[in-house]
Amino acid sequence: MSQQKRSVNESFFQRVYEVVKQIPPGRVTTYGAIARFTGSPQASRMVGWAMNASHSYSEAIPAHRVINRNGLLTGKNHFRHPRMMQELLESEGIRVEDDRVVDFSELFWDPYKELI
DNA sequence: AAGCTGACTATGG
DNA sequence: GCCATAGCCAGCT
Q1: Nearest protein residue to nucleotide B6, judged by CA and C1' positions
Q2: Nucleotide nearest to A77 (CA to C1')
């Protein structure tokens, strides 16, 4: 029973990680898009929570490629250094101005379209 | 144990 | 176009 419940929880986090891991370098996506793709359209907060928990995950999760729907780097404060998120993005060729991804709509990576 | 919080988002005024 | 509200749900107090 409890094992079943745990597997459900793992499934949600697992799915989030699986999606995030497949974001190509130089592209970004949103919490909402991942939440929709993982089956809980309104659970975008949980996606952020999953990113917070991604530290204890065995594999590296490119959490810096997950931003909010406005293209803002809302999660930067949760990195080891607040500027790390922007630096990682810029190292992939993404321009960031004032905590916002430039040309966000063009760089947006939609799991539904790209992942099928 | 019940309630608050939060790396969000959509909607309504 | 900004502010308030509500839905979501795991973890923390």
Answers
A1: A45
A2: B7
